[in-house]
Amino acid sequence: MKRCFLFFCILILFACGIPVSYTNQPLQTYDKDTEYRIDDIENGFTINIYYSRYQMFPESSVVAASCKSALTSIAYEYAEAKGKKIKPINEQRIKISMGRSEFTGITSCSAMVKVEYE
Q1: How far is CA 17 from the centre of its chain?
Q2: Which of 26, 34, 40, 118 could form a disulfide with 30 if both were Cys (CB 3.0 to 4.6 A apart)?
Q3: Model confidence, pTM
């Protein structure tokens, strides 16, 4: 019985704090905190991002802002590399999911948005 209880406690510690993933496809590394995936669609692309970092004192709003900033930066870089301009990204259209593991101190964010070319 003690083993079951211990296993259950460990499972809860590791399972909690994982944000919803908006893609089940592999992601590419952008920097030490950021992974992303871009899928071309008609007249634009969809960008998915996973951003995480250690925080001694949890500030999910800071991670959310950094996540959105990384998402828009990567979107503009991708479009520029293709020689195209994109319409401004409406922050309210960004789907975002937050998570935090109290065990590891990692706060993470998963975000997705559809981007349209001008």
Answers
A1: 13
A2: 34
A3: 0.82
